[in-house]
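Before drawing any conclusions, I looked closely at one protein, both as residues and as discrete backbone shape codes, quoted below without any editing:
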Amino acid sequence: AAAAVDDPHIIPVFEAGEANGVLFIAMRYVRGGDVKSLVHSSGPLSPGRAAAIVSPVASALDAAHEAGLVHRDVKPANMLLDIRPGRPDHVYLSDFGLSKAALAVTGLTGTGQFLGTLDYVAPEQIEGKAVDGRADQYALACAAFELLTGTPPFLHQEAAAMMYAHLSEPPPLLTSRRPDLHPAADRVLSRALAKAPGDRYPSCCEFADAMRAALALGPYDADRAAATPPPT
């Protein structure tokens, strides 16, 4: 799926196949680690740093959605940072291993376990309903919340409680954990985290653009962000 979508923020896949009975996938080496590790080590990110990650990931997701694919496991651990001196960080979305056709009938595996990560999974994915790009938008909004506050929106130890929260609990206000941010950001995140897909933004980029505006940031410069580092 990753190789089929041409976007500068989807991790390049060079080759995949089988060697001596072992399946392999060869992709670009990305120095800098993943965004989950960044938040763990640095704490909540500044609005500008968070938006510089969310916007290119949103662009990558919309490109995948246009190709009829849904990632279904969008989370900070699947966002990789290529960090090099003298240039902006370049963000890659990785791990399309859970991708399915956009109109997949169910999110359940054969053993009854849905695909995805509980901290970020959309309500319709938990329920095993058909999912489209708006499920990825929900997950991206959960990730954006974590980038800005240090934790995902819902905090429960038990899996059942976490699933119930995604299905039934209203998302917490962003400003309840980050009071220095403008209340306009609450409205943006609340819409992207709506329980019903139809109540969310039409696309991931529209969510990311609304978040930038609410955080008093300028428009996303896709051309500058797409300056892909040389292959390694």
